Amino acid sequence: MWKKISNGNQEGAYWAEGEGKVVVLIHGFAEDHSVWEHQTAFLRVHYRVLVPDLPGTGNSPLTHPLSVESMAEFIYAMLVTEGVSEATVIGHSMGGYVALAFAEKYPHLLEGLGLFSSTAKADSPEKVEARQKSIRMMQQYDREPFLRQLIPNMFAEAFRSKQAARVENFVQQALPGNKEPLIAYYEAMIARPDRTAVLKEIRVPVLFFIGKDDQAVPPDNTLGQVTLPAIASVHIFDQVGHMGLLEVYEESNLVLHHFIAFCQRAL
């Protein structure tokens, strides 16, 4: 069911299902809560699953100024609304950046942290330049040409070839809306700091989900981080791109379920 956040400067909505220990699934760039639909349907049988629309997406209005840190505050406001004192927080792509910012400020609320096709590193100069080029493209041509160029490359080539209709369906889902939230997200990602220190200091298990064909967060970017936490669960998938939560959703469901259960036993 849909629930609303109205807590100070935070206003928006999230989807909530299930009972038990709490799991937060944070979507990435050009996505909304529905990107986790397979995982939500599976995990709700075992846990209380909270899936927000981040500010500027879906049922949540864009807030100003927007930053990765302000989106982490949005997650905190959601947990306050739910009366939650502990949760496993998992983020896909940009959602992983938000999860790391949340872990940095609210480590006492964490049972586990999941980086799903994400990284604790800041943007490289080349990545910043690429994002700035994309911002200029959206400013000139709006969001559709940009998304039609971006989204197919988020999937592995093998998946694009065999599941072209599913890729196009995901593109169609992303097209509605205006360019301002996407530009705000890119600006927020450019400004975010390196948070590898969070992984070194964290005392709860950390999940790393890595696709070998991920062009957005290449494996080489992430593999050097998997030894930083005291406890890490590392899963590497062949012929999987940036969208493993859709490309291999059944395997993703099991990875998340086993990780969440492990986090609860590890406390």
Automatic annotation (TrEMBL):
PANTHER family referenced in this protein's UniProt entry, alphabetically: MONOACYLGLYCEROL LIPASE
Coiled-coil positions: none
Organism superkingdom: Bacteria
Gene3D superfamilies on file: alpha/beta hydrolase (3.40.50.1820)
Domain AB hydrolase-1: residue ranges: 22-247
Protein known as: Pimeloyl-ACP methyl ester carboxylesterase
